[in-house]
Design brief:
The chain is 64% helix and 7% strand. With 276 residues, the chain is mostly helical. Helix 2 (45-75) packs antiparallel against helix 4.
Length: 276
Protein backbone atom coordinates (compact mmCIF):
# COMPACT_ATOMS: atom_id res chain seq x y z
CA UNK A 1 0.00 0.00 0.00
CA UNK A 2 1.04 3.62 -0.53
CA UNK A 3 -0.09 5.84 2.38
CA UNK A 4 2.38 8.48 1.19
CA UNK A 5 3.99 9.43 -2.11
CA UNK A 6 7.51 10.78 -2.46
CA UNK A 7 7.77 13.32 -5.29
CA UNK A 8 10.89 15.41 -5.83
CA UNK A 9 11.92 14.92 -2.22
CA UNK A 10 8.47 15.84 -0.89
CA UNK A 11 6.36 13.38 1.12
CA UNK A 12 2.69 13.75 0.25
CA UNK A 13 -0.03 11.86 2.15
CA UNK A 14 -2.18 10.00 -0.35
CA UNK A 15 -5.58 10.29 1.37
CA UNK A 16 -5.84 14.11 1.47
CA UNK A 17 -4.23 14.28 -1.97
CA UNK A 18 -7.00 12.16 -3.46
CA UNK A 19 -9.67 14.14 -1.63
CA UNK A 20 -8.31 17.25 -3.34
CA UNK A 21 -8.15 15.46 -6.69
CA UNK A 22 -11.69 14.14 -6.27
CA UNK A 23 -13.04 17.59 -5.41
CA UNK A 24 -11.17 19.23 -8.29
CA UNK A 25 -12.30 16.67 -10.86
CA UNK A 26 -15.86 16.59 -9.53
CA UNK A 27 -16.05 20.38 -9.68
CA UNK A 28 -14.66 20.48 -13.21
CA UNK A 29 -16.92 17.72 -14.54
CA UNK A 30 -19.95 19.17 -12.76
CA UNK A 31 -19.24 22.59 -14.26
CA UNK A 32 -18.87 21.15 -17.74
CA UNK A 33 -22.11 19.21 -17.28
CA UNK A 34 -23.94 22.37 -16.21
CA UNK A 35 -22.45 24.17 -19.18
CA UNK A 36 -23.83 21.50 -21.49
CA UNK A 37 -27.27 21.89 -19.95
CA UNK A 38 -27.08 25.65 -20.38
CA UNK A 39 -26.11 25.26 -24.02
CA UNK A 40 -29.05 22.91 -24.47
CA UNK A 41 -31.36 25.84 -23.62
CA UNK A 42 -29.48 28.92 -24.84
CA UNK A 43 -26.00 28.59 -26.39
CA UNK A 44 -24.75 31.72 -24.61
CA UNK A 45 -25.49 30.11 -21.23
CA UNK A 46 -22.73 27.49 -21.51
CA UNK A 47 -19.71 29.52 -20.39
CA UNK A 48 -21.76 31.52 -17.89
CA UNK A 49 -23.18 28.45 -16.14
CA UNK A 50 -19.84 26.67 -16.16
CA UNK A 51 -18.17 29.66 -14.52
CA UNK A 52 -20.95 29.99 -11.97
CA UNK A 53 -20.55 26.33 -11.01
CA UNK A 54 -16.82 26.78 -10.36
CA UNK A 55 -17.55 29.76 -8.11
CA UNK A 56 -20.33 27.92 -6.31
CA UNK A 57 -18.24 24.83 -5.57
CA UNK A 58 -15.47 26.93 -4.00
CA UNK A 59 -17.96 28.77 -1.78
CA UNK A 60 -19.63 25.46 -0.91
CA UNK A 61 -16.25 23.93 -0.01
CA UNK A 62 -15.42 26.71 2.43
CA UNK A 63 -18.90 26.60 3.99
CA UNK A 64 -18.83 22.81 4.25
CA UNK A 65 -15.42 22.76 5.95
CA UNK A 66 -16.46 25.44 8.45
CA UNK A 67 -19.70 23.67 9.35
CA UNK A 68 -17.94 20.30 9.57
CA UNK A 69 -15.29 21.73 11.92
CA UNK A 70 -17.77 23.59 14.13
CA UNK A 71 -20.07 20.55 14.26
CA UNK A 72 -17.21 18.32 15.35
CA UNK A 73 -16.29 20.80 18.07
CA UNK A 74 -19.92 20.87 19.20
CA UNK A 75 -20.02 17.08 19.40
CA UNK A 76 -16.91 17.17 21.57
CA UNK A 77 -17.81 20.29 23.50
CA UNK A 78 -16.19 19.22 26.78
CA UNK A 79 -12.79 18.91 25.11
CA UNK A 80 -12.96 22.26 23.35
CA UNK A 81 -14.48 24.00 26.40
CA UNK A 82 -11.37 23.23 28.40
CA UNK A 83 -9.00 24.07 25.52
CA UNK A 84 -10.87 26.42 23.11
CA UNK A 85 -7.77 27.10 21.01
CA UNK A 86 -7.89 23.48 19.81
CA UNK A 87 -10.65 24.46 17.40
CA UNK A 88 -7.98 26.11 15.26
CA UNK A 89 -5.91 22.91 15.22
CA UNK A 90 -6.98 21.21 12.00
CA UNK A 91 -6.16 17.52 11.80
CA UNK A 92 -7.64 14.61 9.84
CA UNK A 93 -10.59 13.17 11.69
CA UNK A 94 -11.65 16.46 13.31
CA UNK A 95 -14.43 17.22 10.83
CA UNK A 96 -18.04 16.01 11.04
CA UNK A 97 -18.64 14.82 7.49
CA UNK A 98 -22.45 14.66 7.38
CA UNK A 99 -23.21 18.23 8.55
CA UNK A 100 -20.42 19.51 6.30
CA UNK A 101 -21.78 17.75 3.22
CA UNK A 102 -25.32 18.95 3.93
CA UNK A 103 -24.10 22.53 4.33
CA UNK A 104 -22.00 22.36 1.16
CA UNK A 105 -24.91 20.97 -0.87
CA UNK A 106 -27.26 23.65 0.47
CA UNK A 107 -24.82 26.46 -0.32
CA UNK A 108 -24.14 25.06 -3.80
CA UNK A 109 -27.84 24.91 -4.63
CA UNK A 110 -28.62 28.33 -3.12
CA UNK A 111 -25.72 30.06 -4.88
CA UNK A 112 -26.67 28.73 -8.32
CA UNK A 113 -30.42 29.21 -7.92
CA UNK A 114 -29.72 32.78 -6.83
CA UNK A 115 -28.10 33.24 -10.24
CA UNK A 116 -31.16 31.89 -12.08
CA UNK A 117 -29.98 28.31 -12.51
CA UNK A 118 -32.82 25.84 -11.98
CA UNK A 119 -32.60 23.38 -9.06
CA UNK A 120 -32.85 20.30 -11.27
CA UNK A 121 -30.08 21.60 -13.51
CA UNK A 122 -27.89 21.92 -10.42
CA UNK A 123 -28.68 18.42 -9.18
CA UNK A 124 -28.21 16.84 -12.61
CA UNK A 125 -24.84 18.48 -13.18
CA UNK A 126 -23.70 17.69 -9.65
CA UNK A 127 -24.71 14.06 -10.10
CA UNK A 128 -22.21 13.69 -12.94
CA UNK A 129 -19.51 15.40 -10.88
CA UNK A 130 -20.20 13.19 -7.86
CA UNK A 131 -19.78 10.03 -9.93
CA UNK A 132 -16.40 11.24 -11.19
CA UNK A 133 -15.28 12.24 -7.69
CA UNK A 134 -16.30 8.87 -6.25
CA UNK A 135 -14.24 7.03 -8.87
CA UNK A 136 -11.15 9.04 -7.84
CA UNK A 137 -11.78 8.47 -4.12
CA UNK A 138 -12.00 4.72 -4.63
CA UNK A 139 -8.63 4.72 -6.40
CA UNK A 140 -7.26 6.57 -3.37
CA UNK A 141 -8.71 3.88 -1.10
CA UNK A 142 -6.94 1.25 -3.18
CA UNK A 143 -3.59 2.99 -2.76
CA UNK A 144 -3.96 3.48 1.00
CA UNK A 145 -5.54 0.09 1.71
CA UNK A 146 -8.73 1.64 3.12
CA UNK A 147 -12.10 -0.08 2.70
CA UNK A 148 -10.29 -3.30 1.78
CA UNK A 149 -11.92 -6.44 0.43
CA UNK A 150 -12.74 -9.93 1.62
CA UNK A 151 -10.12 -12.70 1.35
CA UNK A 152 -10.13 -14.46 -2.02
CA UNK A 153 -8.28 -17.08 -4.02
CA UNK A 154 -9.05 -15.41 -7.35
CA UNK A 155 -5.99 -14.82 -9.56
CA UNK A 156 -6.56 -11.05 -9.55
CA UNK A 157 -6.49 -10.86 -5.76
CA UNK A 158 -4.01 -8.46 -4.13
CA UNK A 159 -2.14 -8.70 -0.85
CA UNK A 160 -3.58 -6.26 1.70
CA UNK A 161 -2.73 -6.42 5.39
CA UNK A 162 -1.09 -9.82 5.04
CA UNK A 163 -3.88 -11.55 3.10
CA UNK A 164 -4.87 -11.97 -0.55
CA UNK A 165 -8.08 -9.97 -0.93
CA UNK A 166 -10.54 -8.77 -3.54
CA UNK A 167 -9.43 -5.40 -4.98
CA UNK A 168 -12.91 -4.16 -4.14
CA UNK A 169 -11.78 -0.54 -4.33
CA UNK A 170 -11.01 -1.03 -8.03
CA UNK A 171 -14.37 -2.76 -8.55
CA UNK A 172 -16.03 0.29 -7.03
CA UNK A 173 -13.89 2.77 -8.97
CA UNK A 174 -14.79 1.03 -12.23
CA UNK A 175 -18.45 1.03 -11.27
CA UNK A 176 -18.52 4.76 -10.49
CA UNK A 177 -16.58 5.54 -13.65
CA UNK A 178 -19.15 3.61 -15.71
CA UNK A 179 -22.01 5.41 -13.94
CA UNK A 180 -20.43 8.80 -14.59
CA UNK A 181 -19.81 7.97 -18.24
CA UNK A 182 -23.42 6.87 -18.67
CA UNK A 183 -24.79 10.01 -17.00
CA UNK A 184 -22.57 12.26 -19.11
CA UNK A 185 -23.55 10.53 -22.34
CA UNK A 186 -27.30 10.81 -21.69
CA UNK A 187 -27.20 14.14 -19.83
CA UNK A 188 -28.91 16.19 -22.53
CA UNK A 189 -31.31 13.44 -23.56
CA UNK A 190 -32.96 13.00 -20.16
CA UNK A 191 -35.62 15.04 -18.44
CA UNK A 192 -34.76 17.57 -15.76
CA UNK A 193 -33.93 15.77 -12.53
CA UNK A 194 -33.74 12.37 -14.16
CA UNK A 195 -29.93 12.31 -14.19
CA UNK A 196 -29.89 12.80 -10.42
CA UNK A 197 -32.27 9.92 -9.81
CA UNK A 198 -30.34 7.71 -12.19
CA UNK A 199 -27.27 8.41 -10.08
CA UNK A 200 -29.21 7.32 -7.00
CA UNK A 201 -30.27 4.09 -8.70
CA UNK A 202 -26.88 3.33 -10.24
CA UNK A 203 -24.91 4.17 -7.11
CA UNK A 204 -27.27 2.19 -4.89
CA UNK A 205 -27.08 -0.83 -7.17
CA UNK A 206 -23.28 -0.62 -7.16
CA UNK A 207 -23.15 -0.53 -3.37
CA UNK A 208 -25.75 -3.28 -3.05
CA UNK A 209 -23.62 -5.63 -5.14
CA UNK A 210 -20.07 -4.64 -4.26
CA UNK A 211 -20.47 -4.17 -0.50
CA UNK A 212 -20.57 -7.96 -0.30
CA UNK A 213 -16.88 -8.00 -1.29
CA UNK A 214 -15.82 -5.52 1.41
CA UNK A 215 -14.38 -6.70 4.70
CA UNK A 216 -14.99 -3.43 6.51
CA UNK A 217 -18.77 -3.02 6.13
CA UNK A 218 -20.63 -2.71 9.48
CA UNK A 219 -23.40 -5.25 10.05
CA UNK A 220 -26.67 -5.40 11.97
CA UNK A 221 -29.34 -8.01 12.69
CA UNK A 222 -27.12 -11.04 12.48
CA UNK A 223 -24.94 -10.15 9.52
CA UNK A 224 -26.96 -7.77 7.33
CA UNK A 225 -24.57 -5.19 5.94
CA UNK A 226 -25.59 -1.63 6.73
CA UNK A 227 -24.44 -0.14 3.38
CA UNK A 228 -26.49 -2.75 1.51
CA UNK A 229 -29.53 -2.06 3.67
CA UNK A 230 -29.32 1.69 3.00
CA UNK A 231 -28.59 1.09 -0.70
CA UNK A 232 -31.64 -1.16 -1.04
CA UNK A 233 -33.89 1.54 0.40
CA UNK A 234 -32.45 4.22 -1.89
CA UNK A 235 -32.68 1.89 -4.88
CA UNK A 236 -36.39 1.30 -4.31
CA UNK A 237 -37.03 5.03 -3.87
CA UNK A 238 -35.04 5.84 -7.01
CA UNK A 239 -36.85 3.26 -9.11
CA UNK A 240 -40.19 4.53 -7.84
CA UNK A 241 -39.35 8.12 -8.82
CA UNK A 242 -37.98 7.09 -12.22
CA UNK A 243 -41.26 5.33 -12.95
CA UNK A 244 -42.89 8.79 -13.13
CA UNK A 245 -40.32 9.92 -15.67
CA UNK A 246 -41.10 6.84 -17.75
CA UNK A 247 -44.77 7.87 -17.83
CA UNK A 248 -43.87 11.31 -19.19
CA UNK A 249 -40.97 10.71 -21.62
CA UNK A 250 -40.48 14.28 -22.81
CA UNK A 251 -37.02 15.39 -24.03
CA UNK A 252 -35.38 17.96 -21.79
CA UNK A 253 -35.53 20.74 -24.41
CA UNK A 254 -39.31 20.42 -24.76
CA UNK A 255 -40.17 21.24 -21.16
CA UNK A 256 -37.23 23.38 -20.11
CA UNK A 257 -36.92 27.04 -20.94
CA UNK A 258 -34.13 29.61 -20.62
CA UNK A 259 -34.13 30.80 -16.98
CA UNK A 260 -33.35 34.35 -18.04
CA UNK A 261 -36.67 34.53 -19.90
CA UNK A 262 -39.25 32.46 -18.07
CA UNK A 263 -37.44 30.54 -15.30
CA UNK A 264 -37.07 26.81 -15.18
CA UNK A 265 -40.25 24.89 -15.79
CA UNK A 266 -41.33 21.74 -14.01
CA UNK A 267 -39.57 18.47 -14.71
CA UNK A 268 -41.32 15.41 -16.05
CA UNK A 269 -41.51 14.14 -12.49
CA UNK A 270 -43.34 17.29 -11.41
CA UNK A 271 -45.78 16.95 -14.28
CA UNK A 272 -46.39 13.31 -13.57
CA UNK A 273 -46.90 13.97 -9.86
CA UNK A 274 -49.76 16.35 -10.68
CA UNK A 275 -51.48 13.54 -12.53
CA UNK A 276 -51.53 11.32 -9.44
Amino acid sequence: MFPVLSIAGLTIPVEPLFWVLAFSLGSEIGGRALGRLGANLVPSQQERWQGLYSQATMVALVAGLLVARISYAGMNFSVYRDSPTLIFSIRPGTFAATPGLIAAAAVLGFWLMRHSVGLWHVTDATAVGVAAAMAILKVGHFLTGAAYGQPTDMPWGIVVWGMVRHPVQLYEASSWFAIGLFLWWYLRRLQSGETFWRLIVGGSLSILVLAAFRATSPTVMGGVRVPQLVALGLLLIGLYVLSFYARSPQPRAEHDSPPDEEGSRSSGFDAASHQM
